Amino acid sequence: MDDIGTVHCVFDNGRTLGVIPGVDDFHIVSEDSEQTEYEEMNISM
Predict the structure, then answer these.
(1) Is residue 19 within 8 Å of residue 6, measured between CB atoms?
(2) Residue 45 lies in a domain
(3) Which residue ranges of the chain lie beneath pLDDT 70?
(4) Residue 30, pLDDT score
């Protein structure tokens, strides 16, 4: 989090994103639920 309240996320692929709580919509995906989403879409990892 920086001095103006932006939460900076770093993704597995190296990309980053600044998210502003209360302004941007976001949710946290746990590793367990991420695997379930792939299984529901029939995608193997």
Answers:
(1) yes
(2) no
(3) 33-45
(4) 77
The reported pTM is 0.51
Token pair of 43 as six digits: 């995608």
Do the beta carbons of residue 27 and residue 36 sit within 8 Å? no
DSSP string, 2-22: -TTSPEEEE-TTS-EEEE-BT
Give the range of the structural domain holding residue 21, as residue numbers without chain letter. Answer: 7-40
Residue 18 lies in a domain: yes
Nearest CA-CA partner of 6 in 15, 14, 16: 16
- Look at the chain and report how many structural domains it folds into: 1
Q: Is residue 24 part of a domain?
A: yes
Query: What is the enclosing helix (H) or strand (E) of 40?
Result: helix 31-40
